[in-house]
Each structure stands twice: as structure tokens, then as C-alpha cells.
Design goal:
- Keywords: Coiled coil.
- This protein is of the alpha+beta class.
- It has one domain.
- It has two helices and seven strands.
- Strand 2 and strand 3 form a beta hairpin.
- The radius of gyration is 23 Å and the shape is elongated.
- The chain starts with a helix and ends with a helix.
Length: 166
């Protein structure tokens, strides 16, 4: 092979490797940004959302309602479906409800979308009678904009909608 052809091929291989390295570096950066967001969400859950949910849980239980708070990690099911990290407050009209045998209770859930770096709120007002709604609220937040006042307001509005759904 001519020296000129060898040089051309070597240049081509070098360019391909550098493009591949750039792509890999970009993917790693994106992954680390996603990981940082998820870590930030976990911290927010631990320091802000969970304590606020515990306050509401105590009041609900004092007034005859059952409650369960669950925190779920980022996971992938066997079907390949990604579950976003979330924290959920479920509510029952019976203080002695067994949340472990039936998971279909109305709830307010804060979810972390690591791809868009947004925190959304899912509200489900459907009791066992089958009436109500379940959907993500339009408003979403960032790690920086979600504060104690907003968390309290969102939980309170959600509980009000859940409890007034006959």
C-alpha cells in the first residue's frame, strides 16, 4: 500500500476514535448529571418532603384515615420499564387499612424525572369505588424551586381533592 494511503487510513482511524471518545465522554457527563439530580432528589425527600408527609400522616391518622409513605429508588422492571425515583403518600378511609395486600389507594406522589431534571407530582383520587382521576399535575419543579411552602401546598391541595372525592 502506498504511504499516502496508509496516512489517509491512519488519519481516518484516529478521527473515528476521537469521535467515539467524545461521544463516550458526553454520555458519561450526562449520566453523572442524571446521578447528581437523583441524589439531589433523594436529599430533598429525606430533608423536606418526607418530614412534611409525616406531619400530614399524623393529622390524617388522628382523624381516622389510614396512611402509608413509601420511597422508591430509580429501578428497571423485568419488562424494561423504568420507574422514576419517587416518594408517595397513600390515603385510606380506614385507619386500619392493610396497604400491603392492596396497593390501589389514592395518593400524592413526588417523582423525579432525571432526563428532564424536573420533579413532577402525580395525584390519584381514585378510591375503591372506582371514581376519581389519576394524572400528573401540569406544574413541575426543579431541585432549586421546590421548597417547604410549595411541598406543603401541593400535599394539602392533593389531600383535599382526595378526601372530597366521594
Amino acid at each position: 500500500m502506498k504511504e499516502e494511503s496508509i496516512d489517509k487510513l491512519n488519519s481516518l482511524f484516529s478521527n473515528l476514535k476521537s469521535e467515539e471518545e467524545k461521544l463516550k465522554a458526553s454520555q458519561e457527563k450526562q449520566k453523572s448529571e442524571e446521578d447528581l439530580f437523583v441524589e439531589g432528589f433523594k436529599t430533598l425527600c429525606k430533608n423536606l418532603i418526607d418530614p412534611k408527609m409525616q406531619e400530614f400522616r399524623r393529622m390524617l391518622r388522628q382523624n381516622g384515615f389510614g396512611c402509608k409513605i413509601t420511597i422508591n429508588e430509580d429501578s428497571k422492571s423485568g419488562t424494561g420499564i423504568n420507574a422514576q425515583p419517587n416518594i408517595k403518600l397513600q390515603i385510606s378511609r380506614n385507619v386500619d387499612s392493610n396497604f400491603y395486600t392492596n396497593n390501589k389507594f389514592p395518593h400524592v406522589m413526588f417523582t423525579a424525572d432525571k432526563y428532564y431534571k424536573k420533579i413532577g407530582i402525580h395525584l390519584d383520587t381514585v378510591f375503591q369505588n372506582g371514581e376519581g382521576t389519576a394524572a400528573m399535575k401540569e406544574q413541575s419543579y426543579t431541585l432549586e424551586t421546590l421548597n417547604e411552602e410549595i411541598v406543603e401546598k401541593e400535599i394539602l391541595e392533593s389531600i383535599e381533592k382526595i378526601l372530597t372525592n366521594k
